[in-house]
């Protein structure tokens, strides 16, 4: 099983094997292509070339192959990893934790428990944030209703 896969049944109602395919569809990749330049990856992911180089420098990306001229050559597996990193960023996971996760992945199967613990902690953070956002949304809805009621009363007084 690869980094990007999970066995069905490890979570309730889990049927997918590639969790990174969940959510919004990825931009289409050229059929049959498995080597991309940094500018192609930037276009496919929305990340800047500077960010991609920084990810490599801090250890968030594993070693990226190079062409005979020294240009970075990304693979589809690298794009899948960047999809996961993007999702981790959306969770609010600190960069240091993302780098730690990447290190654990590179360390191999013996780190499954540590990876799971890190992801469970992040999941808890996400659930707390969702609760905060729902509470914030409820306050906004109350204020919107309040102003809507005021406008209706004002409109009735005018007529």
From TrEMBL:
Database matches in PROSITE patterns: HTH_MERR_1 (PS00552), HTH_MERR_2 (PS50937)
Keywords from the named record: DNA-binding
The keyword Glycosyltransferase is assigned to this record: no
UniProt region (Disordered), positions on chain: 1-33
Any one GO molecular-function label of the UniProt entry: DNA-binding transcription factor activity
Gene3D superfamilies named among the record's database cross-references: 1.10.1660.10
Name assigned to this protein: MerR family transcriptional regulator
Species name: Streptomyces tagetis
